[in-house]
């Protein structure tokens, strides 16, 4: 069996997290882990010694794009290898994570995993069932990309055009979906989200705007279907409560996750639908401590909070 090529793992973060340690321990010969932060004031720069294969990359402040897009663009420019892995610092990477992704690439070509978002605050907990059905299930069934766990090679995309557009937009994986076809392997990663009411509200705003600019037909369909389901839920509440709960139990089974929050599917609907329409009319949103105004698909402005 031919040896796999070395890879560059891109991990945007301003802090040294468990994910950094987990990934550094999985690097093979010639591999590198690029920890991409903003500037020298970030806590991740405070360590005196870093594991072998780890490089810190200062991306600088974003000007016309999100901090995440800016970090990924800087990481791709700094990476030494053609095989690239994008991942995030907010979920557990088991000891065989990189090896398994490489095996998947050998079999399928570009691959991605699926996130399952678990709330850390009351609002995010309530919204869990709809994040699973409206978000995770669509990624799983549609072979769509999650930027937290995707592997591809430079030749798989038009890299120059991609990086040019990445530096002018918000969503790294939303844009990558336009350049790359992947196979979504049957693994789901638990991703804790939220922690405060503010974070819980800002997240659906950002996600809705990603759909608004990258997949306008999807967001229009989501609005229409949500309104219809909400109307039926009001007219026949008992039947819909049973149906929605059963449907979300089934969604969880497909995704391989068992969460008691499926029983919140009915009340979640009454929170989710207003949030979607609120997100559509919001002019700005906060992500990673920065406030953005997303005027057009490739017109992003970082504004004062």
UniProtKB/TrEMBL annotation:
Protein name as annotated: Glycosyltransferase
Pathway: Lipid metabolism; sphingolipid metabolism; Sphingolipid metabolism
UniProt keywords, alphabetically: Glycosyltransferase, Membrane, Transferase, Transmembrane, Transmembrane helix
EC number(s) stated in the UniProt entry for this protein: 2.4.-.-
GO function terms (MF aspect): ceramide glucosyltransferase activity
Recorded topology in the membrane: Multi-pass membrane protein
Enzyme class: transferase
Transmembrane segments: 213-240, 260-281
SUPFAM superfamilies: Nucleotide-diphospho-sugar transferases
Organism the protein comes from: Saliphagus infecundisoli
Record-linked InterPro entries: Ceramide_glucosylTrfase (IPR025993), Nucleotide-diphossugar_trans (IPR029044)
A GO term from the CC aspect: membrane
Pfam families per UniProt: Glyco_transf_21
Subcellular location: Membrane
């Amino acid at each position: 069996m031919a040896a796999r090529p070395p890879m560059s793992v891109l991990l945007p973060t301003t802090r040294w997290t468990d994910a950094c340690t987990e990934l550094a321990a999985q690097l093979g010969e010639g591999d590198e882990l690029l920890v991409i932060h903003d500037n020298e004031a970030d806590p991740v720069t405070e360590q005196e010694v870093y594991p072998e294969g780890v490089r810190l990359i200062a991306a600088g402040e974003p000007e016309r794009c999100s901090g995440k897009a800016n970090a990924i663009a800087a990481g791709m420019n700094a990476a030494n290898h053609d095989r690239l892995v994008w991942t995030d610092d907010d979920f557990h990477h088991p000891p065989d994570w990189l090896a398994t992704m490489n095996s998947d690439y050998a079999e399928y070509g570009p691959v991605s995993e699926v996130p399952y978002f678990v709330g850390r605050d009351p609002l995010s907990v309530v919204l869990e069932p709809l994040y699973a059905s409206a978000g995770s299930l669509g990624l799983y069934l549609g072979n769509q990309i999650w930027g937290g766990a995707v592997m591809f090679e430079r030749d798989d995309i038009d890299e120059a055009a991609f990086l040019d557009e990445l530096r002018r937009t918000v969503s790294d994986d939303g844009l990558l979906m336009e350049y790359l076809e992947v196979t979504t392997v049957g693994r789901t990663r638990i991703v804790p989200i939220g922690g405060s009411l503010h974070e819980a509200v800002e997240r659906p705003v950002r996600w809705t705007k990603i759909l608004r600019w990258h997949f306008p037909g999807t967001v229009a369909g989501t609005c229409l279907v949500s309104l219809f389901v909400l109307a039926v839920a009001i007219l026949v509440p008992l039947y819909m409560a049973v149906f929605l709960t059963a449907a979300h139990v089934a969604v969880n089974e497909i995704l391989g996750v068992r969460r008691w929050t499926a029983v919140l599917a009915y009340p979640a609907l009454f929170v989710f639908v207003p949030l979607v329409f609120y997100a559509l009319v919001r002019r700005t949103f906060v992500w990673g401590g920065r406030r953005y105004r997303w005027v057009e698909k490739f017109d992003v402005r970082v504004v004062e909070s």
